[in-house]
Amino acid sequence: KPKVFTYHDPDDQFRHNFFAVCDLFYIPPTDHFSELYYLNGIHYGAIPLMHKDNHVADLFDPIKEKNLNGNAFIFADDKELVKKAEMAVEFFKEKDKWDVLVKRVMKTDLSWSKFTSPFIKIYERALAKV
């Protein structure tokens, strides 16, 4: 039976417990730590539902309706939010599909080394010219 739970300003231990039991989560953009929550939630296998303008949305690949590629349900407006939430519920009903998504989300590499590598190469090229 689906349940929706909200909690304002959770402490650190609560966040860990929340993500450990969470299947799908959405953090409002008004929350000052929403980006951090998205990055933490995926380590527990909680699948993100986020607006495309979220600061970390570009780190994720959108889950498409026809296939299981991607690692987040990303939406652009209220109408698409409803559509993506409904898509998530349909995937959740099919345990094998949901398990594939959870495993993919947990393997998402968001380490600094992945994102700093191109900048280090640029810096090294610039230093070589000095």
Report what the structure shows.
This protein is mainly alpha-helical. The chain contains five helices and three strands. It has helices at residues 12-21, 34-41, 78-93, 95-106, 112-128; strands spanning 24-25, 47-51, 73-75. The longest helix is centred in the C-terminal third of the chain and has 17 residues, at 112-128.
Brief overview, please?
The protein has 130 residues and is mainly alpha-helical.
Considering the chains and any ligands shown, give keywords for the structure.
130 residues, mainly alpha, 48% helix, 8% strand, globular
Summarize the helices and strands and which ones pair or pack:
Elements: H1 12-21, E1 24-25, H2 34-41, E2 47-51, E3 73-75, H3 78-93, H4 95-106, H5 112-128
Parallel strand pairs: 1-2, 2-3
